[in-house]
Design goal:
422 residues; alpha+beta; Elongation Factor Tu (Ef-tu), domain 3; 2 domains; 7-stranded mixed beta sheet; 6-stranded mixed beta sheet; 21% helix
Length: 422
């Protein structure tokens, strides 16, 4: 697979922004070894361009006939090492994947007989059955591996799959010949022990390890004996890490990793950090009468819970680790260099290392709450990715929820790279 084409631009007029990005794409098409005949394109745009999405898509079709487009709106978008927030911007990436190896789909464009192995998905956050949509699509793929996120917007969120869509789920499915490597990076840090849910009613956790869940929460926050109402400022900053019971299998076995890498996904728990199976959810209420807590997800007896908080330094470390692992997978001979670069971080003004030769293109979907200031400076999150992977073609967006495998996450980033070995 040839390196993908990519471009990004900002301008108050979407036509001018697209013209600026198109000029970048056409300049790359003339370079030796470039994807001169693209077949699949991604378009991400900030919500300023949401009302013009249909006209934008029509212009994309006119400029690149034969290219099929997928994408979504975002309160922010990612392009290379740059983040765009609170300004009108768009990002494009075009690939020359053989047409028989992918299928663009939506509610109006079913997969049909296509044998999907993995899928990049975009979902309307206003849908009432998001978890069900994600699980159903995961079951339609041979590996069970999805990557993507919920579109986001300060107005009406939209997603794209050869048309501009509201509601439901859409995206592009790939067969087993399209090789990719994918990782989830967590943005929160546990503040107490991991406990097992021993009594629950829907989203209310009543007891953990046989003890009142509210009592466990107050102890972990070092607030034992404090009136919960007086502790509300601290409780509002507390989140809940929820994961399946040990030994409970996912909907699918781990994807085959053979000669090509298909949805490689890390499930290892690390000391002081969550495993990638953990879904971080908000603490939405208290039930003092039953000594329970309400969380923003269904809580099942046997599942595990750890209380946590957002932690910038933990998020930086985990993102560095993930980037180093991805580079190791696609370019193992550079492991010492990649690991050193990732662990050292991305000093201000430091040039990106040589791009990993095994990466044709990348998609990064991050939580809307992680971008910009959360990492200390504008574009700091994307600078870490670029510093580790090099100046590879990369686009993405800041989502209302992130998707990896059959899980819907929050406060995470999902990095997926397409390898040149496809």
């Amino acid at each position: 697979m040839k390196p993908f084409l990519h471009a990004h631009a900002t301008h108050p007029d979407w036509r001018r922004a697209l013209a600026l990005a198109a000029a970048q794409v056409e300049a790359q098409r003339s370079e030796p070894g470039a994807a001169a005949a693209p077949t699949l394109g991604w378009v991400y745009f900030t919500d300023s361009f949401g009302p013009h999405a249909a006209a934008l898509l029509a212009e994309l079709h006119q400029r690149w006939p034969g290219v099929q487009w997928v994408g979504a709106s975002g309160v922010g978008i990612a392009a290379g090492g740059v983040e765009y927030f609170d300004e009108p911007a768009l990002a494009l990436m075009l690939a020359d994947i053989p047409r028989e190896r992918f299928r663009v789909f939506s509610g109006a464009r079913p997969l049909g007989g296509f044998k999907a192995h993995t899928a990049n998905v975009h979902v309307d956050p206003a849908s009432t059955d998001v978890d069900e949509l994600v699980r159903d699509m995961s079951e339609r793929t041979a590996s069970g591996y999805l990557f993507g996120g919920l579109a986001s917007s300060r107005g009406k969120a939209v997603h794209v799959a050869e048309s501009v869509l509201s509601g439901g789920l859409s995206g592009v499915a790939f067969d087993a010949r399209v090789a990719l490597v994918s990782r989830v990076t967590q943005g929160c840090q546990p503040i107490g022990a991991t406990r097992t849910v021993t009594a629950a009613e829907r989203n209310v956790v009543i007891s953990l390890d046989g003890e009142g869940a509210l009592d466990c929460l107050m102890r972990d926050l070092k607030l034992t004996g404090t009136d919960p109402r007086a502790a509300l400022p601290v409780l509002r900053q507390t989140l809940v890490g929820l994961s399946n019971a040990p030994g409970v299998a996912a909907a699918h076995a781990e994807p085959d990793t053979g000669a090509a890498l298909h949805g490689r996904f890390d499930h290892v728990a690390r000391r002081g950090a969550f495993s990638t199976d953990t879904r971080v959810r908000p603490l939405v209420g208290l039930d003092p009468g039953r000594r329970g807590i309400a969380v923003g997800d269904m809580a099942r007896v046997g599942s595990q819970i750890a209380f946590c908080t957002r932690n910038t330094e933990a998020a930086r470390r985990d993102l560095m680790r993930v980037c180093a692992e991805v580079r190791e997978e696609v370019e193992p001979e550079t492991l010492p260099m990649a690991a050193a670069l990732a662990l050292k971080g991305a000093p201000a003004g430091h040039a990106a290392p040589t791009a990993a030769r095994g990466i044709a293109g990348a998609i990064y979907v991050s939580c809307a709450g992680r971008g910009g200031a959360h990492f200390g400076a504008p574009s700091a999150e994307l600078a870490i990715v670029r510093h580790a992977l090099g100046d590879v073609p990369l686009v993405g967006f800041f989502a209302s929820g992130e998707i990896a495998r059959e899980h819907l996450y929050g406060y995470t980033g999902v990095l997926t790279v397409f390898t040149t070995g496809s």
